[in-house]
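Box 3.1 A note on notation
Throughout this textbook, protein chains are presented in two layers. The first layer is the amino acid sequence; the second is a token string describing backbone geometry. Keep the layers aligned when reading.
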Amino acid sequence: MGTLDNNTPTVAVVVATYNGANYLLAQLESIVQQTYKPAQIIIIDDASTDDTITIAQAFATAHPEVMVVQNETRLGYIKNFEKGMLLANASYVALSDQDDIWMPYKIEKLLVAIGDQMLAYSDSELIDANGHLLHKKMSSIKNQLAYHTPIMYAIGAWAPGHAMLFKKELVDKAVPFPSLVTHDFWLGFVATCYSKVVYVNEPLVHYRQHTQNAIGADTTKNKTVSLTLAQKKQQARERMCLLYNKVKATGHADAVVFEKINDSYSSFSLSNNVKRAKLFFDYRNLILAYKKKSALLKILFAVKMFFKID
């Protein structure tokens, strides 16, 4: 690992909280004990009803770099993180959940790795509610890897916000954050429109799993309201249109690919079904890079896209 001057660049950590009293203090301690000290720690609380704000304010009293902001009404985790990122006054921003534990060298290693790119993230080690290792990494669930084109975000990705560090200018390029996708998906996607997303193949976070996770590692849980088939199709169309419009606005060369995919989502006509299946076949290794699928399963996925949209 390289070395860094601890005076520059500056890093702001945005900690989004909501009823996180059980775990918040341990996470805050892991942030202030970083080998590369953050210049600013913003605790942005989404109208908690437990002791979260009391814990945060007491911690801020002992640590002058900590700012505590409490929302009067709930914004939801996406807009809460967005508000915190906009308050950040540093060269780089790192996002923090309220219940994880950071390795002491997390910020330092991500700063070394990011280079000239917009965003870097690392692997994570899963722990249970009591902080015990589950002997499972995020990379064992789905592939974690470097992203070098927005096409790799066409239907999904596996670069979580709790493991990210990114340039503050990425926030300006990403706002306003849409509600159709998560804030970390949007950050990674927008980053690929301007640069690469760097991956550090080392767990730098203990990612806590418990029943109150807003977003956890268990992708089998249905954490959203059930939608009808027609609603799912409409949501998929709106999501693809969102991605296409953003890529087009940035002038990225892959906008032509997104335009074709977006057009194929407009209806289930025979021509659109054929176009969609062919596009997913042609770009299957990029679109499905984050999924642990064999070569055969990637082909079958492309065939499936003749009959549906994701």
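The two ends are 40 Å apart (CA to CA). The longest strand covers residues 197-208.
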